[in-house]
Amino acid sequence: MTRWEPDLLGDGYERRTIPLGDDPDGEGVVEATLVRRTAPADVRGAVIYVHGFSDYFFQKEMAEFFTERGHAFYALDLRKCGRSRREGQTGHYVSDLALYDRELDEALAIVRDETGDVPVLLSAHSTGGLILPLWLDRLNRRPGGSRGAGIAGLVLNSPWFDLQGKPWMRTIGTQVIAAVAKVKPTTMMKLPATDAYGTSLHVSGHGEWEFDTVFKPLNGFPVSYGWLTAVRRGHAQLHRGLDVGVPSLVLRSTKSWFAREWSPQVDEADAVLDVKQIARWSGCLGDAVTVVPIDKARHDVFISKLEPREAAYATVDAWMGAQGLLGG
C-alpha cells in the first residue's frame, strides 16, 4: 500500500502511486498517480478528473472550484503520462484504451474508501473524455451498474469523439494506420509540427498558465500508429452507442480553428478538435446528455481566457445544482 506524499503543485496537494505491475505492452513496470486537493471540512461529494493526450493534471483552479462546493477533488495521471511516466516508456502509449480500466477502478476504490458514500462526479478532457465513457460503459454492465459504484454524473470538456481532418482519414486512412500498427505499433507517425495550441496556453508564449513542458510539451507528444489505432477502436465503440449509466454534461467551444502557428484566433477556438464532431457524437453516451457550447473557449475550456472560463464554470455549477450534487 502506497501512502500520500507532497505533490509538485505545492501546499494543499498530495499524491500517491497506484502500482499496476508489468506493462501488457512490454515497457516495464507501470503505475498511475492519484493527486488530491486538501478536502473541505464537510464533504458532500467527490470528483475524479482525467487528463487528455500530451497532458497531466496541473489545473489548481479546477480543484479549488470543486472544493469550494464541498467536493473532495482527485485527479489521475494515467500510466506513462505526466507524473506516472518512467524512463524508457513511450509517453501516453497503450495498445488498448481498456487497459486504463485498471487504474480507473483503483482510483475509484481509493476515493470511495476515503470519502464514504458521497456521490462521485467524473470529469475528463479530450482523450480522457473518450477513455472515461468507455470505462463507464463497461462499469455499467457490472452488477449494480455505474450508480451502484457510486458514480453520480460525468462532465466532459472537449471530448475526443472522432478523428479530425479530411474524411478519408476516417475511412481508408484509419485502415492504413491499423495495418501499420500490426507490425510497428510504437513507430511514430509523421505529422505536421505545430505549437500553436501549446504556446497559446503557456506563460512563455501567449498564455497565462504555468505547467511542466516535459509533461505537457508545447508541440505535444508524437503520435504512434498503435496508440491512434486504439483510439480509433474507441471511437468506433462510441459511435455504436454507449450507456454510461449517469447524466452527462459535455462542454465544447463554438468553433474550431486549426493552425500550425499561434494567432489571436487560436485563443478563442478549439485548435485541436472539430467541435462539430463533438456535437454530433455526444448523444452516443447514453442516459441524459446536456451539450453546452462555450463561446470563445479553447480546446480545454477550463484554461480558456477568463470570460469563457467563467462561463464554463457557471455552466458546471448550474448543471451540478440541477443534478442535486450541490447539497442543501
Automatic annotation (TrEMBL):
Provenance organism: Aeromicrobium endophyticum
Keyword Ubl conjugation found: no
Keyword Transcription part of the UniProt annotation: no
GO function terms (MF aspect): hydrolase activity
Domain of life of the source: Bacteria
SUPFAM superfamilies reported in the protein's UniProt record: alpha/beta-Hydrolases
Gene3D superfamilies: alpha/beta hydrolase
Higher taxonomy: Bacteria, Bacillati, Actinomycetota, Actinomycetes, Propionibacteriales
Name recorded for this polypeptide: Alpha/beta hydrolase
Serine aminopeptidase S33 domain ranges (all copies): 42-254
InterPro entries with a match to the protein in the record: AB_hydrolase_fold (IPR029058), Hydrolase_4 (IPR022742), MAG_DAG_Lipase (IPR051044)
Keyword terms: Hydrolase
